[in-house]
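pinned: reference chain
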Amino acid sequence: MRTGTTKLAIVGAGAVGSTMAYAALMRGAARNVALLDIDRKKVDAEVLDLRHGLEFMPQASVEGSDDVAVCADADVVMVTAGAKQRPGQSRLDLAEATIGLMQKILPGLLEVAPNAVYVMVTNPVDIVTYASLKISGLPPHQMMGSGTVLDSSRLRHLVAQRCGVAVQNVHAYIAGEHGDSEIPLWSSATIGGVPLSEWNPLPGRLPLDAEARDVIARDVVRSAYTIIEGKGATNYAIGLAGSRIAEAILGDEDRVMPVSTLLDDFYGIDDVCLSVPSLVGRQGSIERFEVPLSDSEYDGLKTSAETVRAAARRFGY
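pinned: its structure tokens
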């Protein structure tokens, strides 16, 4: 495990970036947290608010600026900044604008933090991660997307809620796109070591049958839309998920997480960034696990890959 002072840089001090900084400080993920945002007044205010709470957190420092130099020598760079969706813009329009933003900000980040592990959080995360790899020229292990870490947490919550167990005892992954074509990997899911296919409902609990699983899968996809409709953005859960990814990297944990990485002959899938269970540690993401897939899961993953690849090609990547 790596020892010494660690630095986490977060690009974007909006709802997601500032919440991620708060979560990272509360969890003690890094000794130094830096916020970068083009809005100097906003980033200064967020830093001041965070500093006022440092007494109640694990020992750390926090700084912020509109100058990329604030990210110098970062060990991990989380990119939450993205183009804002305007009325009438499609999701693909948003992708094009966000890729344009990455073309502007990545060169400066790489100049001051060339050895950092980069984690793209901004959406559509799989397309942005793939384009950012091409723009940056970084080796694939050094750049990943937050992928379906949050989606998998949503899945585990819903399964735990239905089955009446602690969410920490549910082990299940969402794979593929962080979006509408994502798929739950039911065939490898377990509760307390019991495969879901063999799970018998606890007294007073409903069965986790095929119909229930379909409802849960749909709810995972729809949940972000529900939150955005109610309060305008998702920030708490993605802030926690992002800080947990950073913690796994900074702590060299070799933790299995469904981050979005460049696939190379993963069940025959190549040249696309998708989420599959991957080993996350100080070097980034260097291994992917070929978890057993049912025929329908394999077909779903292939379809998800085609969806993301087609969108990336539309923008020349």
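why pinned: The two ends are 36 Å apart (CA to CA). The chain has eight helices and 16 strands.
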